[in-house]
Design brief:
mainly alpha
């Protein structure tokens, strides 16, 4: 198995490259493909962040770290669509991927 840092970097590069591809997509098929790749990258990044939190903290600090992690994820799940809607409304849909 690879180290956490290397694995996280690879996952992050996949997600960011897919975001760049989606932002510059010339057609619907490329946009859908980029979004699929973005989903694959995100499906690897998010669990890795949780694994890192688990590995770095013990005892009560772990409980607090999990609470902070959960709060951030929950907040972004609520805030992300609002921010995305504003970006698409005031700018253009491509800006949501930048």
């Amino acid at each position: 198995m690879r180290g956490r840092r290397r694995t996280f970097r690879i996952e992050l590069v996949i997600f960011l490259a897919a975001s760049l591809l989606a932002a510059t997509a010339a057609g619907g098929a490329l946009l859908i493909g980029a979004r699929v790749l973005q989903g694959v990258g995100a499906s690897m990044v998010v669990p890795m962040t949780l694994a890192v939190v688990d590995a770095l903290h013990t005892g009560t600090r772990r409980t607090v770290a999990f609470a902070v992690w959960s709060s951030v994820i929950g907040g972004m799940a609520a805030f992300g669509p609002l921010l995305g809607g504003w970006v698409v409304t005031d700018f253009a849909w491509r800006w949501a991927f930048w």
